[in-house]
Amino acid sequence: MSSIRKSLLISFAEKYAAIFIQFFSTIILARLLTPEDIGIYSVASVIVGLAHMFRDFGVSQYIVQEKELTIDKIRSAFGAAILFAWTMAVVLFFLKSLVANFYSDERLEDVIFVLTLCFILLPFGSVTLAVLRRNLNFAPIFRVQTASAFVLAFTSIVLAIEGYGFMSLAWASLAGVITTVVGITYYRPKNFPFFPGFREIKSVINFGGLTSIARLCKEVRVATPDMVTGKMISMDAVGLLGRAMGLIKLFEMAVLTAVRQVVLPHLSAEQRAKGDIGAAYLRIIDYVNVLAWPFYGVLFILAFPIMRVLYGSQWDAAVPITQILCIYGISSAMFYFLDEVLISVGMVKKSAIFHFQLLIIIIPSVVAVGGYGLQAVAFSLVVVSIVGLIMAHRLLARVLKLDYSSILKSMSKVFGIFSFSITGPILITLFIAMESNNYVWILGAGIISAAIGWISGVVIFRHPIKNELDPAFTMIRKLLQIRR
Question: How many domains does the chain have?
């Protein structure tokens, strides 16, 4: 258990370092770039993101979950990564003009071209990263990813100041990838092969085919709002939706992605040891709920001062979108680790089917409401996420034979902690009028009161997450005693 906690600690450190860097760079870029600049890059990155699903082809997940990882299998995974990444680079190169013509915006062609260059380099780092994750060796990953995030942020700001506009984000992405590949190569294991192979490529492709379908469906589902908004409304609207979704995904960046890096290796190890996957998943969901509900509740209440303080008045139109999407954030977080569970128990096919079913729900839903404006698109995402939550938990109940009475019991504690967390921000916004000179004070007071309420709720309702906080409480008490 100590190794898991250590891995989680380093994984959280990596993500928080990246969030800290991205947080300040985003604030600066929001004042250097226009919503249209952000919208152009968002549409291009969405298209390239779909190609990323085939670029990786499930190679990273294959390495993490493989029961007997031999040198031949690593070489074959490396070969498959190069084969699919370079193939997708060629495909994107020839598709970039078609995408630009579809959106009637030639600027997209330049952005896609630069992002395509990343595909040539990524295979030389992705396999090494996967091996390090499998071994729960997150310290090198922390160093490299933090350096990459800094380079990306620094490059984007400098280029934006120099007037590169939307292209500053594209060139910065390439700079970040170069940093990752160079850095992770330094930390490659001693027995890691330098050259690709294809002897075991059949097993890689058999696994990767299903995971790629699942990830492709998932990425198309995530990308659909941006693509539909860009076509049916405007690039400016894409920028507003992206800004709102950026705030919603802060929880994913701060918590879920850090945990995800450890969840699959941990559950795969539990499966190899024939442990209780269902019990492990219930603990994860309990911890996610006690963090997600208060986060999105406070974000809903403080959306306006947060948007004003971080990004300025030009993004005010994104505030109601952010508030609507808070419900989307809660429901999506509650089935965020579905893929990791299904992959760890060898049911990759069920994951692919689930994401395909959700995809055929979201596309007509968003297209049907696209003509009614951005808020209608946001409401459609909420509905789809709730449907996805119901579908995911029904699937997991069958696969893991879960007893959901324990989840319902824990939810009473979650609601109690949630109520404690939002009470302070609600009172502050009710009794203090928002003016141009007090946004920072309202935001600061709201966050502090929410934190105090959350900690009080955890202690009063005796939620299990208190056990993880006890070391921090002990350290604070010692510091106070020293000060006295």
Answer: 1
